Structure formats: structure tokens, C-alpha cells
């Protein structure tokens, strides 16, 4: 069974972006050391245009072969004219309003998101599934998330978009590892307690 991994950046106070979802304040903190780690450990989580710009497009996938993201997350790429932001992965976008996909590499999941993710998890593959975000899709899929990889940036936002947009429910995860970087970023990995 493949894992669904919510791999996400957040502030110290748990926000993944400002109230509209803009996370550019975090992107500005990615320095050479931290980028080297991301490229070495999670190269497939770097969007295709960024991989090409940084001449790392030939890096093989290490953890994931599939990405699931929400409409708001996908819209960030569409606003830049990019219809397949993760062309090196199988791309799924959860949207009840997008209608037809603007790219043959992107499949729209319009209904039964949980059922579709369960089917993806049941596939026979050596790779897991990258849940990109945002808060709404993470909240809808919280019961399907097997692993959290949280990149915590050394900023406090005060308010913004939370990691999970869902009702109150306690879900326990076990801390597997913590890695710190010179720029103050922490990368914490948690697995779901079963």
C-alpha cells in the first residue's frame, strides 16, 4: 500500500500562507544549504519549471511518482501560464469547478476525492503520493494521510491559511525525525499512529 504524504511548508505558528494562501515569505528563506537538501532528498517536489531553471530536471524521483493538489494550489501555476507544474509526476487536481483539464498530463478529480486517493494508494508502485495542498484538500483527506513532512520556516505570521481546513478532530502522529538547518528551518517527519 502506497503512502499519502502531506509535504508542506509552514510558519512557526502553523500557517501555510497568508489569508489568500501566498507563501512567498517562506520561499525567500530557501538558502543554498536548504535547497541542496530539498534537491537531494525530495527532488520531485520542486515544480518542473523550477527544476529546468536550476538545471536539475534530470534528477530522478526519489519518493513520489504522483501528486494530488487542490484547485487553489494549481491556480498559482495557471496564473503563470503553466498548465502542468509537475510534468515529471502523474498530476491530479481536486476541483469541483475547474471542469475540463487544461493539460493532458493533469487529471481533474471532480467528485469522490477520498475514493480516488484510496485507489491511488492501492496501486502497485515503489513510489508514494505527494499531497501538495492546500488547507481544504488536506482537511478533506486528513483520514487518508499516512505521513506528514513539515518544513517549518522561522517566521510567525499571526494569521493566514492553516495546514488543515477541517473541523475539530484529534489525529495522532508519531515523530520520526527532525532535521535543522542553518537558516532556522526545521524539517519534521511524522507517521500516522495506527
Morphology call? globular
**What portion of the residues fall into strands of 2 or more residues?**
25-35%
- Count the DSSP helices: 6
DSSP, total strands: 10
Report low-confidence residues grouped into runs of 5 or more. Answer: none
Report the mean per-residue pLDDT as an integer: 93
Helix vs. strand class? alpha/beta
Describe the structure.
With 194 residues, the protein is an alpha/beta fold. The chain has 6 helices and 10 strands, in the order ββαααβαββαβαββββ. Strands 5-4-3-6-1-7-10-9 form an 8-stranded mixed β-sheet. It has a two-stranded antiparallel sheet with strand order 2-8. The protein is globular, with a radius of gyration of 16 Å. The model has no long low-confidence stretch (mean pLDDT 93).
Quick summary:
The protein is of the alpha/beta class. It contains six helices and ten strands, in the order ββαααβαββαβαββββ. Strand 3, helix 4 and strand 4 form a beta-alpha-beta unit.
Amino acid at each position: 500500500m502506497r503512502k499519502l504524504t502531506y509535504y508542506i511548508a509552514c510558519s512557526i505558528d502553523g500557517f501555510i500562507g497568508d489569508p489568500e494562501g501566498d507563501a512567498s515569505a517562506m520561499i525567500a528563506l530557501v538558502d543554498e544549504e536548504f535547497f541542496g537538501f530539498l534537491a537531494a532528498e525530495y527532488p520531485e517536489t520542486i515544480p518542473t519549471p523550477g527544476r529546468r531553471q536550476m538545471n536539475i530536471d534530470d534528477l530522478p524521483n526519489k519518493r513520489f511518482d504522483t501528486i494530488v493538489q487542490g484547485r487553489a494550489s494549481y491556480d498559482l501555476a495557471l496564473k503563470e501560464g503553466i498548465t502542468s507544474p509537475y510534468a515529471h509526476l502523474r498530476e491530479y487536481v481536486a476541483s469541483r469547478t475547474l471542469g475540463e483539464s487544461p493539460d493532458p498530463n493533469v487529471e481533474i478529480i471532480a467528485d469522490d476525492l477520498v475514493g480516488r486517493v484510496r485507489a491511488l494508494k492501492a496501486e502497485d508502485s515503489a513510489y508514494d503520493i505527494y499531497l501538495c495542498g492546500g488547507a481544504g484538500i488536506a482537511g478533506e483527506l486528513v483520514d487518508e494521510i499516512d505521513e506528514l513532512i513539515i518544513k517549518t520556516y522561522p517566521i510567525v505570521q499571526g494569521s493566514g491559511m492553516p495546514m488543515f481546513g477541517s473541523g475539530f478532530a484529534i489525529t495522532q502522529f508519531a515523530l520520526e525525525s527532525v532535521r535543522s538547518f542553518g537558516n532556522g528551518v526545521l524539517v519534521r517527519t511524522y507517521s500516522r499512529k495506527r
